[in-house]
Amino acid sequence: MKRTTHEVFNQSTDFADVNLFTGNRALADALRFNLPGCDEARFVALGAELGSAEMQRHARLANHFAPSLKSHDRFGRRIDQVDFHPGYHALMAAAMRHGLHGTPWFAGPGAHVERAAAFMLFTECEPSILCPISMTYAVTPALRANRAILRQWGPGLASDRYDPRFLPFDEKSGLTMGMGMTEKQGGSDVRANTTRAEYEADDAWGRRYRITGHKWFCSAPMCDAFLILAQAPAGLSCFFLPRIRPDGSVNAFAVQRLKHKLGNHANASSEVEFDAATAWLVGEEGRGVAQILAMGTITRLDCAPGTAGLMRHALALALHHAAGREAFGRRLIDQPMMKNVLADLALESEAATALALRLARAVERSENGDDGHEALIRRVLTPVAKFWICKRGSHFAQETMECLGGNGYVEEHGEGVMARIYREMPLNSIWEGAGNIMALDLLRALRSAEVGAALEREVAPVRGAHPAIAATLETVRRAIAGAVDEARARRLARDVALLLQAVLLRQHSTEAVFDAFCASRLAGSGAGDVFGLLPAGVDTAAIVARAAPGARG
Ligand SMILES: Cc1cc2nc3c(=O)[nH]c(=O)nc-3n(C[C@H](O)[C@H](O)[C@H](O)COP(=O)(O)OP(=O)(O)OC[C@H]3O[C@@H](n4cnc5c(N)ncnc54)[C@H](O)[C@@H]3O)c2cc1C
Prior knowledge:
The chain is of the alpha+beta class. It has helices at 25-34, 40-50, 53-64, 86-97, 111-125, 130-143, 147-158, 288-324, 336-367, 373-403, 417-430, 435-446, 449-459, 467-481, 489-508, 511-523, 540-547, and strands at 68-72, 78-83, 177-180, 196-203, 206-219, 225-232, 235-242, 253-258, 269-282, 326-327, 330-331. The protein is built from 17 helices and eleven strands.
C-alpha cells in the first residue's frame, strides 16, 4: 500500500470556469461610459465562454504544440504551408464567430467599441491567435483605396466563418489578411525597403505588378492575402498580394522559415520571399507609407486593449491566488503590504482599460465621419495608449507573477497562463511601432495647434477635480510650448497618458480609484517605480474589492 507522506493544503485553486466579464467592473464601467446602452448580455455570455476550462485548454494546447512549417509535400513539391494544432483552429473559429476581425466595418454604430471590449476579453483567454484577427480587422480602411478588390474580398473579410483551407478566395467562406512591411535592413524606417515592384499590366483589380524581394517578419503566413510595401518607380507603394492568384494558381510567396520566438507561440511568424509574385497597387504609387498606415493605426489600437486584457487577467490570477493562500497566519490578500501591491496593480489595470476603450471610441467616431474632436484626439490617444500601456505591461506581468510566488514562475501552474502573459507582454510594445516610434509620433501630432486644443478639451471637464490634474496639464503645456526635443518625447508621452487616464478614471471609476491614481501617479513620482508604493490614506481595501475577479461562469 502506498504511504501518504504529506497532506496538500494551502494551495490556491484553478482559475477556470470563471466569467471574465462579470467580475471585471473596470471594463463594464468603461464600456457603459464609451457606449451607453450597449448590450451587456452579449459580454456576459462571451465572458463565460472565454473563461471556460475548455477554452483554456485550447489556449494551452495551441501554444504547447506550436505551428510548424510544411515547406514541401511528401513528393517534394513546394507548398509553403503551416500546420496548426486543432486548438488554434478552435480559437480562431471562436474569434471570428464573435466578429473580432472584419465585421465592425460593416456593422452599426458602436461596433468598434464593442469589438475592442470583446478583444480585451479574448486576450485574457489567448492573445497570440489574435494577430491575424487584428490584421484582418485593420485592413479594411487601407483596402478602400482599391474598390475592386474590396468589393470582392469585403464579404469574406467580414464573414463570421473561419475557413482555414488553402483555396482561392472565392471558394472560401471566410478570409483573413496580414501585412508585410519589415525587412532585414529596416523595420521602423520602412523607407529603407528594397523589395521592388515592376508594373505588369492593368486588369479587373487595377494596376498589377511583379514583386521581388523579402519580408523579415510576416506573421500569420496562412492568411489569404497581405498588404505589403515595395519600391515602385514613383517610390514606396502599398500592394495587395494574395497567396493564391485569382486564376487559381499559387502565388510566388515562399515561406523561408518560422521565427523561434520568446512567446506568442500559437501564432506563426515567418520570413518570406517573393519571386516575381503577383500583386495589385492599393492607393497611389509613392504613397505606400501613408496607405499602409491606415492599417497600422488600427493594429496599434489593438495593442492597447490587447495589453489591457493581459493585465486584467494577470491581476485576476494574482487576486485569486492571494485570496486562496495564507502566509504568516493571514491570507495574502489581507497582509497590508500585499494589499498595497494588489491595489496598485488594480489601479494600473483599470487605467489601461479606460485608456484603451477611450481610444476605441475615438477610432469608432472618426472612422464614422467625425473629423472634429474625435479625429484630433485620436492622433494623441493612439501613440500614447500604445506607448504607455504596453510599456507598463512587462513590469505589470513581473509583479503579478511574484504575487503567485514560486508557482507563478512554473509553466505548469494555472495551465501556464502567467508564463504566457509574461512572455507576450513585450511584444505589443515592439511591433506596430516600438516605444520610441510612438513617442516620436506623439511629438509630431502635438506640433499641430488643433491637436493640442483637442487635448485641452479632453481634460477640461475634470481640470478642477484634483490639484494634480491641473499641475500635470501645466507640465504638458510647457513641454508642448517648448517644442519638446526628441530626447524627452518619452516623458511627454508618459505625462499625457497619465493625465488622460486620470481624466477617464474621474469620469467612470470610483472616488477611491481616482484619488489613489492621482496621489500615486500624478502627485507623486510613483509612475515607473515598483508597484506597492501607494501612500498612506489610500483606500486599498476598496480598490482591491472593486477589482475582485468574477463570479463563476
Ligand atoms: C513576433 C513578431 C511579429 C511581427 N510580425 C510582423 C508582421 O507581420 N509584419 C511586419 O511588417 N512586421 C512584423 N514584425 C516586425 C515589427 O513590426 C518590427 O520588429 C518593429 O516595427 C521594429 O522594427 P525593427 O525590428 O526593424 O527595429 P528597428 O526599426 O531597428 O528599431 C530598433 C529600436 O530602435 C528604435 N528606433 C528606431 N528609430 C528610432 C528613432 N528615430 N529614434 C529613436 N529610436 C528609434 C525603435 O524604437 C526600437 O526600439 C513583427 C515583429 C515581431 C517581434
